[in-house]
Every structure is written in C-alpha cells, then in structure tokens.
Amino acid sequence: MKNFLRALRYAWPYRGRLFLSIICAVWAAVFWSLNFTAIYPVLKILGSEQSLQQWVDGKIEQTQKSIDELNANIDLHNNRLRELKQKPPSPIHDQLYRKLTGALAKLEGRLESARNNLYYYQLAKKYIDQFLPDDPFQTLAYVIGMVALAVAIKGFFQFGQEALVGSVVNLSLFDLRNRFFRNTIHLDVTNFNQQGTHDLMARFTNDMELLAAGLKTLFGKVIAEPLKAFGCIILALYISWQLTLMFLVLVPVALYILTRVGQLMKRATRRLLERMSNIYKILQETFLGIRVVKAFAREPYERRRFRTATRDYYYRAMQVVHIDAMAGPIVEWLGVVAVATALLAGAYLVLEHKTHLFGMRMTSQPLEPEALLQLYALLAAIADPVRKLSSVYTRIQSGAAAADRIFQSLDRQPIVQSNSYAPRLNRHHDSIEFRDVCFSYEPGRPILTNVHLRLEFGQTVAFVGKNGCGKTTLVGLIPRFYDPDHGTILIDGQDIREVNLRSLRKQVGIVTQETVLFDDTIYNNIAYGRRHAPKDDIIAAAKQAFAHDFISKLPDGYETRIGEAGSKLSGGQKQRIALARAILHDPAIFILDEFTSQIDAESEVLIHRALREFMRGRTTIVITHRLNTLEIADCIVVLERGRVEAVGKHHELLQSCPVYQRLHEAHFQRQCA
Predict the structure, then answer these.
(1) Helices of type H across 289-368
(2) Fewer Cβ atoms within 10 Å of its own Cβ: the N or the C terminal residue of the chain?
(3) What kind and span of H or E run contains 65?
(4) Maximum average pLDDT range among 84-93, 158-167, 258-267
(5) Residue 350 pLDDT > 50, yes or no?
C-alpha cells in the first residue's frame, strides 16, 4: 500500500475539489437516510387510518398518562423508602431498601425516557400542525412527494460528488502520467534495453487505468457509502441502540474476510498485469516485424503465440474475477444474517410486548410494529452500502498492485546523469580522445577492451570491422548513450561526464542504419532537431541530402505525412530525410552509422560529394561495411573483438593490417559474386 499512498499525493493539489466532493457526499447521505424516516408515518397512516395530527395527539396523551403513572409510582416508592428509614435497621429492612432503591432508579430512568419522548412528540406536533394537512390521504401524498423531492436532491449531490471525484482522479492521473513520461524519457538507453518498451507501454496504459479505478473507489465509495451507512445507523440507534449493536457485531468478521480477500486480490492482480505486458510484447514484435512474419509465412505461429498469451491472461483475469465476485456474496450473506438476527429479536419484543431479551433491556418501552419495520428498513439500508463496500478493498488492492509497478519504473534513475549545473561544452574543439575505455552490456561479457584512440578536430574518421566488434557501441559512448565501465572519453581534455549533457548532445548529429522517423510531416521530421528553423534552411538541408527532388514530387510536398515509422516512404527516402535532419542540426560531431545502406549507388555518389562540403569544420565519424565509402575518410580505424587493431590510411592498412586485408578481400569477393 506504500506506493498507492504515494499516488494519493498527486491528488493533494486538487484538495479543494476533493473537499467539495466530501460535502456533497455528506448531504447525499443525509437525504439518503432521511428518506427512510417516511416509512413510519406511511405505515401509521395506512395501519390506523388516522391523520398524523390525530396520531401525534394520541401519542402525547398516552405519554402524558404514562408520565403521570410513573410520577405516582415514584412518589409511592419514595414514601415507602421514608418509612423504611424510620424503622430500626435489620437484614430484612436492608434488603427491602436495596430492592426499592433499584426499582426507584428504573422508574426514574423510564420517567426520563418518557419525558424525552413527550418532548419529541410535542416538537413533531408543532411541525405536523404547521406543514401537514388534516386529511390522511393528503398527508400520505405530501409525505410521498417529500420523499421524491429528497431523492432528487440526493441525486444532485450524488452527481456532484461523483463528478468532482472523477475530475480529481483524472487530473491526478494526468499529472502522474506526465511525471512518469518525463522520468522515463530521461532514462538512458540501457534502461530501455533492460525493461523493454512493451512493459513500459503496459504500465502507461493498463496499470494506470487500474490505479485510476482504485483512486476513484477510494475517493468515491470509501467516502460516500460509509456516510450513508452512518446516517442510517444514527436513526437506527435512536429506535433501539441495543438491536442496532446486535446487527453491527458482525462488522469485524466482515472486515477480516475482506482483508484476506484483498491480499489474494493484490497478488492475483500483479500476475495479471505481468501477463498484459507479455501481450503488449507479442503485439509490438509482430506488428513491427510484419514483413518478416509474412515473408516466412509465420502467421499461424504468431496466432498460436498470441492465443497462448491471451489464454494465460484469461486464466489470470478469471482469478481476479472470482476473488472479486467472492467478496460480495460473503458480505451480503453476513448482512442478511445480522439483519435477520436483529429482526427476530425485535419481532419477539413486539409480539410478546417485552422490553428485555436474555435479561438485557433492549428498549425503554415496548416496540411498535411500525417502529420495528422502520428499524428493519434502516438495517437493510445499512447493509446496502456495506455490500457495495465489499468490492472496495479488492479494487484498492488492484490499484495498489498497479501503483507498485508504476512507481517501480518511476523510481528508476538514469545511470547517465545529465550534470545540469556542469560547465557547457564549447562547440569548437581540438580533439576527441578515448583513454583506456572498457565497456560491457552485461558483467563478464566485454564489448570494448582498453580502447586508446585520438580523433583530431575536422577529421573524417571511418570505423571498420566485422559485425559485433564494437563499432556502434564505441561511437555511442560519445553522446553518452552509455558511460564506459572503465576509462574516460575526453573532448579538448574535458571528461564528457563532467560537462553539461545537453550541450554535449546538441553538438552531435547521428544518422543510423535503422532510420527512426515519426508519424508526422516530412517538414517536421527534418526540423525535429531545430523546431523553429526557417523553411529555407529546411529546404537547403533536404537538397544537401538529395531529398528535395522526391519530396517536391509528392502531392503535399513537405507537408506530406509519412505514416508510422515512415511506412509510406522507401528505405532510401527515409535515410535521406534522416540525413537532412542531421544536416539541419548543424553538429560539430557528425556520426554516420551505415548511413548509405539503403541508398542506390548513384545517390550514394551524389551524397558523398555533398558530404565532402558539409564535413568541413566538423569531426565526422563514419561506420561502414562498404569500403567504397572510405573514399571520404581521412583516416581509418580498424576494430577487432572490441580492441583497436590499427589506425591509418587505406593504402597503409592494406600493407600492415591483416584484419583490414581480409575485410578488403571479402568486399571485392562480394562484388565479383
């Protein structure tokens, strides 16, 4: 419950609305309980065929007569006590004195109760004479009309309470979602690789909805339903507090059962949410890889995989349903047992005209049938909110399980810290130096080992090597997608971990082999790194990337939406837009990771020509398997198994580096093939 309580803090800024919702809930409960007070006058009118004026006059006369009789009995007992005091003490006299004293106390108690009743009857007479007609039918119609009006007023306050609670919950979730997204988007790449986007999506959607349901239950039913029950309890206690307590004795039993059920619910909900994350994972993998699925005719396999995941989710969901469904009938049965017990006890008192049960006083005077029926109605009215509350604890536990998963992600801290107050990195620098750099994604499996390398400013450096040798990882350390496990990366002698992260990344432009575009216009995709760039600059960047011609031929030109992940464009077109985006960013450090892998040979020649001009005055790092791309490089770095094998120019490496020789031979063998 700790994380669920943390979620409640997000409702604190909206405490004014929450306070108003509580006021509405109080008034709704007042009118809810007052509606049941109409039962007694209705039964009296129907049963006695008297008007309420006649009935209250009779009650006043009867109560006054009882008071007179009690006063006479009290006077009689007082006289007998005075007589006993005048007689000499003896054990018999002492016993009789104690008996008369006890009887006198009971009579005085009954007298006090009768005087209170007389006061209430006289008060009722005042309002009955003032507001109700003399005719019984007209009085009945008036009472029923007042009930209808009270129900309408209760509905107004109930609507107000639910609307205010809904606004508090949705605003709280609005703030929590944005805080969650803000925290998540600032996590480093390693966190995303470990957790997976499918699991994050489940926490942003399904988990948030369960948390919202828990908060709405807490602010709604947990406040409104007990108030309804409390109002009815007050009225029931006035009729007979002893019978009411007999009904309430089973409440601790119900609370214990609900606690046990709630614990089961929390565990079941946590397992259910994990299964939902698995469904998100399968959907994400299948839809992103739909071309591969269709190319290998694996639709039946993916259907079976999805069916297995959804069947598992179904079983977990049914566990939650069964646990939730179990609580209601148990509490309802306990309520029926409690009401039946109180009703039987009350019926005995009414039918036998008794005031005591098992030697205990239950009422100050014999109960009327109408009063017993009103008490029964009030106890049944108490049972209804209690029955509704039976699902509250289970839903709050479901919300608590969701809150645990949400705050588990929200509490994650990036390994790569931003250093917001650190000095900013200057754009014009002299060198980039890797000094004894080691890195691994998993302990015991090094990707880079003792890398020593110095890149001079303004150079175009090509990184070559076999797949998995660490080229992309090494380059990814420059914008601090990761930090090295050992060693340092220096720009102009400054450790990049000690400079402002944003200023560092603003100087880095990246074009990757896996082109990432957004479901937006071409214009906005190119301007992603400079949202307020002039249109002329965007067009110039597109021309430099040789994208302007095909963009101009599209129906909407630069305003053409490219679909999810650029699905409406070819691979080469997407790479040229990504290149234009990086060019517009005007980076000091330009990283090209297999940037021509999906571009035809003719376009590649043109782009190389344009890049020669663009690369001036900036450090460019090229990762490539195409040796013809090396023509734009000033020097070449050969990587082998996470180490720098050699550094030099093309003709130098052909003579001195066996690894480079093998790469060169393999390249020409592929060309001949």
Answers:
(1) 290-295, 299-351
(2) C
(3) helix 52-86
(4) 158-167
(5) yes
H/E stretch holding 648 reads: strand 643-648
Q: Of 417, 457, 484, nearest to 617 (Cα)? A: 457
And the tokens for 33? Answer: 């309980």
Do the beta carbons of residue 581 and residue 573 sit within 8 Å? no
- With 0-12 / 13-18 / 19 or more C-beta atoms within 10 angstroms meaning exposed / middle / buried, residue 130 is exposed
Query: How high is the pLDDT of residue 438?
Result: 92
pLDDT digits (tens, 9 = 90+) for 522-541: 899 898 888 888 889 999 98
Residue 245's nearest CA partner among 385, 357, 333 is 357
Residue at token pair 């005085």: 108
Token pair belonging to 255: 């609370």
**Tokens linked to 100:** 């008369």
For range 249-277, the mean pLDDT: 74
Q: Which amino acid is at 442?
A: E
Strands (E), 492-634: 494-495, 508-511, 589-593, 619-623
Q: Which amino acid belongs to residue 243?
A: L
**Three-state DSSP state, 436:** strand
Which tokens hold the place of 321?
């349903």
Decide: helix, strand or coil at residue 82: helix
Say which amino acid occupies 131: F
- At position 476, the amino acid (one-letter code) is G
Q: Is the pLDDT at 309 greater than 70, yes or no?
A: yes
The whole-angstrom separation of Cα 313 and Cα 283 is: 14
The two tokens of residue 639 are 């990587």
> pLDDT tens-digit profile of 160-196?
988 999 899 999 999 998 888 888 888 877 777 666 6
Is residue 384 over pLDDT 80?
A: no
326 or 22, which is more confident? 22
Residue 182: both structure tokens together: 């803000």
Query: For 181-197, b where at least 16 C-beta lie within 10 A, e where not — what string?
Result: eeebeebbeebeeebee
| Count of Cβ atoms closer than 10 Å to residue 273 Cβ | 23
In this predicted structure, the answer to whether residue 49 has a pLDDT above a threshold of 70 is: no
DSSP 416: S
Structure tokens at 185: 């988007």
E strands present in 499-582: 508-511
User: How far is Cα 515 from Cα 462, in angstroms, rounded to an integer?
Assistant: 20
Torsion angle, CA of 571/575/580/582, rounded to 10 degrees?
150
CA distance 270 to 278: 13
What is the C-alpha separation between 590 and 510, in angstroms, rounded?
6
Per-residue pLDDT tens digits for 393-411? 777 888 888 888 888 888 8
Cα of first residue to Cα of last residue in the chain, in angstroms, is: 65
Other CB atoms within 10 A of residue 508 CB: 19
Look up the pTM and report it: 0.70
**Model confidence pLDDT, tens digit, residues 461-513:** 989 888 888 888 898 898 888 889 899 999 888 888 888 888 888 888 888 87
User: In whole angstroms, what is the distance from residue 277 CA to residue 291 CA?
Assistant: 23
